[in-house]
């Protein structure tokens, strides 16, 4: 927290100092309260918090003693009283306010420590009922938080247990909280209640719209800043990185710890997320490596270990891999780190980077090394800003159920071809449309991305494979959407494809299937497309 910059003389002269503590999350409460008591604060509290403080041997004044009313309605009403809110909201620099609280026998409260019922945690539990969620909507807590935040020139409001140490240290050092500290605490408090109310609105909106997966009439988002960035996609654009407050973040880019390297840029973070989301889609029991350049996978492979997976992914397109992002679904060991050091890369990301690997990577001090942890949380919605609004959709997370696959050609794929088709299909999901992915032996051979014409994506993938010296004969191919004409299928066969996986659904499916049969190519329909824009 900030140091003192202007002292409120009236507040400072108040002889009695009261702190009101009423918290759902009791982490760090006892140590904080002990230090407040040592500073001469009289502790005022409510039910569960008061019991916890007394158990710690602290003297506590129950709110009911101040108000003259016991808690009522199963605890729904306990702090909603002038003896509480008058004590919080009084402007001590105004003689009229001072006279009013003196006449009412109200002692000012100079510190409010409140965090709220765990509505978000309860409302997202599987099987939670509406009644259970509603009972976890805090009323008195937000009222006290907002009152204290509004009166920040005279009251400190603490909503985050992480702030306990710096708050009490400042009180111990100077006897009061500075204007700057109280202002920052108030800002955090209003953000806290805004996020809380937003979560309630989203939950009730989904209930009204039909269920947990429904889209509410109003959608509220809350994000906290992780860092400011030097610039955005280009140097003339300002940028910052924010973390979603609505989900646990372990195992995500937002939770990643940077173990070494230069400051991350906007493009680094965007590409690292694309690489991480793609690589974590593969079974963690098999070593997978994804190399991304400009938001597209340019090389993906499974291997016997991370180093083998990396070498095979790099072989797909060594030219594009230059300056790319490298992601692993398993911890990076020393062998993988030594392999990585053979190329120039911007970022390396993995669930863990072993100490021996960090020692090797230290030879490339500019290389950004990110460690995500092993969490499995994934974004459930995707946002895209448009002029004056935002597009919101569910994330493209579902894994294809092999039972949904339909063989539509006379020749069925072999077991090996089927495995490679599913591998290529998983990669295509993360390639910008129109997407074409050639693969063989759980290794990408050529990737065609982001073209206006699907046949142009075929040509680019074939060209990339040729540049890398990779033979496409007998390759398996995934297309993220159907072939509108047979020319795309013909181009795949000409390049060497022997099996194809695609969604199907074109009015010319019969023509494309006939072309596949003509060439002796096996084809699977998924019934699911993967456009990515």
Structure description:
The strands form 5 sheets. A 6-stranded mixed sheet has the order 8-13-12-11-9-10. The protein has a 6-stranded mixed sheet with strand order 16-21-20-19-17-18, sandwiched between helices. The two termini are 43 Å apart. The chain has 3 domains: 9-209, Rossmann fold; 247-371, Cytidine Deaminase, domain 2, CATH 3.40.140; 403-525, AICAR transformylase, duplication domain (Cytidine Deaminase, domain 2), CATH 3.40.140.20. The longest helix has 31 residues, at 179-209. The radius of gyration is 30 Å and the shape is elongated. α5 (82-89) runs parallel beside α9. The chain has 20 helices and 21 strands.
* CATH fold-level topology of the largest domain: Rossmann fold
| Spatial arrangement of strands, main beta sheet | 8-13-12-11-9-10
Largest sheet, strands/sense/barrel:
6 strands, mixed
Structural class: alpha/beta
List low-pLDDT spans: 1-15
**What is the CA-atom radius of gyration, in angstroms?**
30 Å
The proportion of residues forming helix, as a percent range, comes to: 25-40%
Number of domains: 3
Annotation field: number of helices: 20
Distance between the termini: 43 Å
In one word, what is the shape?
elongated
Give the full name of the CATH homologous superfamily of the largest domain: Methylglyoxal synthase-like domain
Q: In CATH, what is the class of the largest domain? A: Alpha Beta
CATH architecture verdict of the largest domain? 3-Layer(aba) Sandwich
Q: Report the strand count.
A: 21
Strand content: 15-25%
């Amino acid at each position: 927290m900030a140091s003192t910059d202007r002292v409120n003389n009236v507040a400072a002269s108040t002889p009695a100092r009261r702190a009101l503590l009423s918290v759902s999350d009791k982490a760090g409460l006892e140590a904080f309260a002990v230090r407040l008591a040592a500073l001469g604060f009289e502790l005022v509290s409510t039910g569960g918090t008061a019991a916890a403080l007394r158990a710690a041997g602290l003297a506590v004044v129950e709110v009911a003693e101040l108000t003259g009313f016991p808690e009522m309605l199963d605890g729904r009403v306990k702090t909603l009283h002038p003896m509480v809110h008058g004590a919080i909201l009084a402007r001590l620099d105004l003689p009229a306010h001072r006279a009013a609280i003196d006449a009412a026998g109200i002692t000012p409260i100079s510190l409010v420590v409140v965090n709220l019922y765990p509505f978000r945690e309860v409302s997202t539990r599987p099987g939670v009922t509406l009644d259970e969620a509603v009972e976890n909507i805090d009323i008195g807590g937000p009222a006290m938080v907002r009152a204290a935040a509004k009166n920040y020139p005279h009251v400190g409001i603490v909503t985050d247990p992480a702030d306990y140490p710096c708050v009490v240290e400042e009180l111990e050092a100077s006897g009061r909280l500075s204007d700057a500290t109280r202002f920052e605490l108030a800002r955090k408090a209003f953000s806290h209640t805004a996020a809380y109310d937003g979560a309630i609105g989203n939950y009730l909106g989904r209930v009204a719209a039909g269920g947990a997966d429904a889209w509410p009439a109003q959608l509220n988002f809350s994000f906290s800043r992780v860092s400011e960035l030097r610039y955005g996609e280009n140097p003339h654009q300002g940028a910052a990185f924010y973390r979603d407050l609505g989900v646990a973040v372990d195992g995500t880019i937002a939770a990643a710890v940077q173990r070494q390297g230069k400051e991350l840029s906007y493009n680094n973070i965007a590409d690292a997320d694309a690489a991480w989301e793609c690589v974590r889609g593969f079974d963690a029991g098999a070593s997978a490596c994804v190399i991304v350049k400009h938001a597209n996978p340019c090389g993906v492979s499974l291997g016997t270990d991370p180093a083998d997976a990396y070498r095979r992914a790099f072989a797909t397109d060594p030219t594009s891999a230059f300056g790319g992002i490298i992601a692993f679904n398993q911890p990076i060991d020393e062998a993988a780190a030594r392999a990585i050091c053979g190329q120039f890369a911007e970022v390396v990301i993995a669930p863990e980077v072993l100490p021996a690997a960090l020692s090797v990577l230290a030879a490339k001090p500019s290389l950004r090394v990110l460690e995500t942890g092993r969490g499995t949380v994934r974004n459930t919605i995707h946002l895209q800003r448009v002029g004056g609004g935002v597009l919101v959709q569910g994330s493209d997370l579902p894994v294809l159920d092999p039972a949904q696959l339909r063989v539509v050609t006379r020749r069925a794929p072999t077991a090996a071809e089927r495995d490679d088709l599913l591998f290529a299909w998983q990669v295509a999901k993360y390639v910008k449309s129109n997407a074409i992915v050639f693969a063989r032996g759980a290794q990408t051979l050529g990737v065609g991305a982001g073209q206006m014409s699907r046949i142009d994506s075929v040509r680019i993938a074939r060209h990339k494979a040729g540049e890398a010296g990779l033979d496409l004969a007998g390759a398996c191919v995934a297309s993220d959407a159907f072939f509108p004409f047979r020319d795309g299928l013909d181009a795949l066969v000409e390049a060497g494809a022997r099996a194809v996986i695609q969604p199907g659904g074109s009015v010319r499916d019969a023509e494309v299937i006939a072309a596949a049969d003509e060439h002796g190519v096996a084809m699977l329909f998924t019934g699911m497309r993967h456009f990515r824009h």
